[in-house]
Design goal:
The protein contains seven helices and no strands. Helix 3 packs antiparallel against helix 7, helix 5 crosses helix 7 and helix 6 packs antiparallel against helix 7. It has one domain. The termini are far apart. It has 179 residues and is mostly helical.
Length: 179
């Protein structure tokens, strides 16, 4: 299976070899300013910016928790009775698929209605925390369908939360980030 996925991925990336290095038409003169090059000075500025931890810490915590959960589903689930590697794989697939679908639906809606961002964040954060707590106990019960539903909710809430939270943090501390 890994060989098949590797072959498909390789074939899909081959067209990138033929992409031009520059756009066909130059950018307009009123284009936004370019970003500074990555250098030690840039990183020093970033690390001394008080807004940076407000952006980086929540994203790092979310990413760590989500990646750990999705990566460790097999060892989390398979010690308990009806769970197999296949059912853990399906659970991981639901986690990601439902998450992507929910983000694709919620992001454009919440992007247009900025006033809904904070209430949605206030709803999703406790929902995600509760889902992680339930995930600690649900496999012991042995409900495969329950785990599928829980991970679908967790994926949907998690994938919907990240762009919202980052956008909200940029709005709150955006002046310091652009400096």
């Amino acid at each position: 299976m890994v060989l098949y996925i590797s072959l498909i991925s390789t074939i899909c990336t081959l067209p990138t070899l033929f992409l031009p290095t520059a756009p066909a038409t130059p950018p307009p003169t009123n284009a936004p300013p370019t970003h500074p090059p990555l250098s030690r000075h840039t990183f020093r500025l970033l690390l001394t910016n008080p807004s940076f931890p407000l952006l980086a810490l929540p994203f790092a915590i979310y990413t760590s928790a989500f990646n750990a959960t999705s990566s460790l589903l097999v060892p989390i689930l398979t010690p308990f009775a009806p769970f197999t590697e296949t059912s853990a794989g399906i659970a991981g697939g639901l986690l990601i698929l439902i998450g992507l679908l929910s983000a694709a639906i919620t992001s454009p809606i919440l992007d247009k209605h900025a006033r809904l961002r904070l209430p949605t964040i206030k709803l999703l954060v406790p929902l995600i925390a509760l889902a992680y707590i339930i995930l600690c106990f649900l496999p012991q019960i042995g409900s495969v369908v329950g785990v599928y539903i829980l991970l679908s909710v967790l994926g949907g809430a998690s994938f919907s939360l990240v762009p919202l939270a980052l956008e909200m943090l940029v709005d709150v501390c955006g002046e310091g980030v652009g400096a």
